[in-house]
Amino acid sequence: MGNTPLKGSTTDHAHRIHFHQARTSQKFLSNQHLWKLSSRYLQNLEEYLETVIKGTPSQQWIEFPDLYHFLQVHVTRAMIHSLMGSHLLETNSTFIEDFWTFDSHVPRLLRAFPRWMIPQAYQARDRLLETIKTWHAHAHAHADCTKLADDDPEWEPYFGSKLVRARQEYALKAHFMNADARASEDLGLLMASNGNAVPSVFWFIYESLKSNSSVRGSLSGEVAASTNHNGELDIQKLIRQPLLQSMYAEVLRLYVGIGTARQSDSEPFQLGGYQIPKREPFIIFSRHPALNSEAWAAAGRARAETAPLDEFYPERFLVPKTKNESGSSEKTGFDFSLEGLAGLWLPYGGGQRMCPGRHFAKNEIIGTFALLTREYDMELTGSARHQHTKPDLRWFPSGALPPVGKVPFRIRKRVHSTPRGL
Ligand code: HEM
Q1: Which atom of ligand 1 is the closest one to the Cα of 261?
Q2: Taking CA atoms, which of 271, 277, 315, 418 is between 20 and 30 Å from 374?
Q3: Percent of the chain beyond pLDDT 70?
């Protein structure tokens, strides 16, 4: 996957799939592409949420049986629309439902359960792949996936983002990637972009609703401070706010249980007293270092009495402000920092293969919270008001952990005195 092929490699450039996968996602999920994709996602989400509320008199609460399901529907819809265009969702009206049925079986699919044991998972996956194939064919008939120059549109309705166009472009050049392979690749992208981000959005919103009024007030204050001169949300300002970043990092620390697979292609190496042979696969788990209080203390982040590592603590990643730098909080005198935590905070893996969607995920998680906070009032209802929902550890080590059980809540549109929009 490196810029230079491995010594002795005879693979054609067009067939270096790992190189093309990595390069396209790094390129089209950063810089101007990242900001445009993020604003489009938030715009879509705002529009979808408007349709949920439409027709309800202002100030009237709407009750929902489960916050996680609500986010699975609306966040995924807005994400697919921004990343993959509008036609994919029009091709199959049960696409989102099928995706989450399939996703709920990921731990079993990873353990290679056969079709006869989990027929719903296989049927949902078959439908998803068929839909993606139909969508690809339709998009190729109406749009040109090679339109990737700076002056080509960042988004069009058939393929959606430049990232998806670029993936089609290299896959078509690799002659062994037929329509089935290309569909599987984009199901992979759907999993990568929704499977971890949506549970993380859930935990961010859930923990903010569970937090005390001082934390809630500071979070809303940071959202309010992240507006441009038109009173619109400024995403670049937003994702630099200290407490919002600390909440985000704490959500990923506690609620992502992922295993990152690696092997050394070139030579054996030593790790913690063990000799790891060349080409021997091994897995690095994110959750063990995230909960290792000795290692956190050694990194100068011990807060064992006030904030044990198995508990959610919104301010965990705040450190006293040293200088008047950007990203500092005037009110609290604290900065957000991940310094010293390499090897302890690993939700995105590491090295060359580190998640290329991490900047987008951060914008999406903090941006979704900010949008909901600005535009809506939300409250937990029923049993969710008193009980604390736990993450489903059966999911470990497949990624962000979904909640156990349903979390009922209610929502209503806020009445605005200031101009709004994104
Ligand atoms: C909280 C949200 C997310 C988490 C925790 C997460 C985590 C990860 C991890 C651990 C990997 C494997 C990295 C490695 O092997 O070192 C990965 C890969 C990947 N992620 Fe994410 N991710 C998230 C969101 C996203 C989003 C929103 C996107 C895209 C829009 C995305 C796109 C990708 C892609 C394309 C890969 C494969 C990279 C490759 O193998 O070359 N991710 N992610």
Answers
A1: 15
A2: 315
A3: 95
